[in-house]
Protein 1
Amino acid sequence: MNACEASRARLEPSRSPLIARQPILDRHGRLMAYELLYRGGRLDGRESDTTATARVLVESIGSIGLAEIAGSAALFVNFGRDLLHDPTVFDLLPPESIVIEILETVEPSSQLCRSIAALRARGFRIALDDYMYRSSLEPLLDLADYVKIDVLASKDSLEREVERLTLRGLQRLAEKVETRAEFDRCLALGFDLFQGYYFCRPETLDERPLAANQLAVLELVTALQDPTKDAKALAHIINRDVALSYQLLKLANSPLFRRRRPIAAMQDAMVILGLDSVKKWATLLMLSRFASGKPSELLRTALVRAYMCSSLAANGVSAGDHTFFTTGLLSVLDALLDRPMARVLSDLALVPDVTDALLGDACGPVGRVLRQVQAYEAGDWSQAMASNDSDSLRAAYLEAVSSADRVLAQVL
């Protein structure tokens, strides 16, 4: 084996790094960017060289396509010191779409600052990751566009950290925001951007009864999941809701399905698209009625989970694709309704496997797949890889992201 072959063999575990994205939202819940979460090392039990891993990651972004990963949003990507000194690494990346995150472990030097200034001159934006003040970082602050503060690590000094940055005109990004209370605190402190899964959590644990219109939607969702309903009965139920019937027929005739002839009636849709397909899309459209005032990223998260659950379930699990897809969709019900999941499910008569999965039980096949998908979404790679190899996980996730974006372009 020559030197080139040996080098290639060492890099093989990182050839297809696991990739996920975490949304970055503004103060009004609008999507502003994604951070790229990735893992390229330890797939074979050894820690891969971080520079080699990052190089493979950059190649992956180029081969997959930035639009497939982030759509039209900007993408925050972590880079270590060695890569920041190598301008050729960035030749594959469009400067207008990439924010270079400088890891907190990087110590500034005059050479490093020159390299970062050169990248900034090419159009790349710069973010300081996991920022906590120390005087040595002053040169990097002068080059930065964004400063990211870990709200968990800085919870006792958050006010002080924000105060130091106030006069610099930098965009302040609160990361690891996991609860609405943390979001509200950061909002009050003047943060501009927010990262974390707070938007997937209920805003309040509200014990007031659900409104009549909310109950009506949940009753229809229940009917859609009833395995005893045949196509004729389901078509009758959907046709009673004129808005839902119209939306479904509009979706059925959209470019998503590429029909040669128009679908004019709900029963035709049942035959042409299939009963399970109509159930999926009807459930999504009903959930979208709860989404007013919520970040659009919440429905996108639900759809990515639904598609990924469905894809992973196809790898040998006996329950139907529709069950897994629906479970992924319904996994954000608590956040949509601002109620604890147990409270929401008390108004829904779902099959036990779905109910158990939504309540956090990972013992059944549906719950196991949902937990795996949520772990992947959060970048918890060891948990995500519990029962699937990295290639199938990566493929399932990227296809789920692409499918979710296509659907939401028609629905929203």
Note: Confidence is low (pLDDT under 50) at residues 1-14, 41-49.
Protein 2
Amino acid sequence: MKSKVKQGQSFLDKVLQLTGSIETALDVSVATGIGITDDLPIDTPIETDLVKNRRIVEMFNKEDDTEPATAIKNYTDDFTPVAIGWSAIGINFRIS
């Protein structure tokens, strides 16, 4: 089976979609030359004939575009405030 990466999909998402099991990730990685943690550009083709669970493969390959997409992009541990700025009760934020 062959499929192209869509927005928000990681390598593991594609492995689950194509094989029905995350257990096959290392086998697919070796066969395709793609690292398990690699960021995949959209439209990257991934092909494998290894199917571990046919029911899961069928569920994720229906015509209704139900596909796993769990990739997290641009994640940082830094907290960036989205309000006007930082406030601390009793310092610059007063409660009357």
Note: The mean pLDDT is 83.
Protein 3
Amino acid sequence: MRYVALPVPILLALLVLAQLPIPVAASTVRLLDLPEGYIPLGVVLVGGQVWVASYTYGAVSRVDFASGTVEHYYIEGEPDTDYTWMFTDLAVDASGRLWIASQSGRLVVFDPVSKEFAVVLEGVEGISTLCYCLGRLWFPVPGKLYYYNPATGEVGFYPFSTPWATYGSAVCGGGSVWFTDTVNGRVYAFNISTYSFRVFTGFNRPVGVYYLDGYVYVAENVRSVDPGTPAIAVLDVGSGSVSRVPVRGSPYGVVAFKVLTATVVAYSSSGEDPYLSRGIGIVSGGSVTFFNITVPAVYKLVYDAEAGAIYFTFYGSASGVGQFSEPPQVGEYLLPSSATIAVAVNTYPTTVAYQTSLSLEANATTVFVGDAVEFTAVLRYANGTKAGQPVGAGKPIKLYVNGTEVAEGVTDVNGSWRYVHVFNDAGIYVVKAVFEGGTFSPYYSASSSSELVVEVREHVAPTPPTPAPPTAALYVSVLVATAVATAAVSVYLAKRGVAG
């Protein structure tokens, strides 16, 4: 457990501040209502345009505050009134496409240019939130953090230990994917480089999460029946220390941004009192300002730096999208409050579902220059009930000769990969196969084969044999053969009456 240690003057000032009532200020707000029955949740910016996804109707909508118009696009061509799709969140990839989380277990993409939908993944346990990070879409479901690569279509997941959970939001920051577990009071960080998780426990109903400059800001959605106080929790990623800034309402979404050199944190509130605790809160310079908006509960939000505005979704007795453009007061960097949280920080590697072993064989290990050698690599399970059995198709294997990669391929259905290599120079060669592991639903550990030594020899022209000198036995055999031949001729001539 780690705690925040603040200088005494700052601590005293914050203690005084904590006793003061939170000021309520007027705000500049524009609202665009959606038709009855819409439940807008996810909200993003694409090229300066505001897009929202609706839990109902299977719809995404483009909201134009300049003209006051809203355009709807439906995955079924018309409003889906059977809650088939249940869109819950939006993310934008590098090409400007919208990726939609669907609690029906589907990952959906929408192209704002062609206005076309496509379902790229189905059959995943309900997806409630997602984010785009380092070229992939990431979305947590109980016990698994899934990814989808739009460029290759690759999909997989990294398992982690968790009780039954509900995930509030996900965000990319600092080389990690951050997401909250509302039920169990946890914030998770998955490091994409090291394939490891960190879990921070001890939060009160964490829903929204946002990363900026080494800090993670967490919206603690505390209500009257819950323990604790509504707050924005501030996590110092470097030290792991966490503290709270008490706020009004029940924080839901959160976003952090810079105004000049100041860090400003804005949060949406879905408070129980519509006239006092529903709206937008601004935390800056150690102070909190709350802007009440007399609409149903305010949920997710996004910051538009170019327009200097915050866009948010709301729904309840009415639904729609709002634009909040009150300039926040610029102060110092956000300071933690004196109310620290006892937060346990645990770091653990990705659970390896399967250990692997890799073997390598060659059809010959002593050959001549120019000869071809066939190598066969077989990838097998090394643990569990499948130990010793071949791993299936699609696992990439690399072949190294004297430390240099010479080929790469994938295993067949029998876990095998074959490659023929021609050795063009004489010498001694060390050959090894490598499987680098990774997530192939589920995760497989890396493994390497034993080294094979191949000797390649030069071709040597054969030396013609030297004739052997005549021997005594040879002379005798020649004399005998001559005598026999002479006798045979004499008998032949005698029979013919020819004198010898």
Note: Helices lie at 8-19, 472-495.
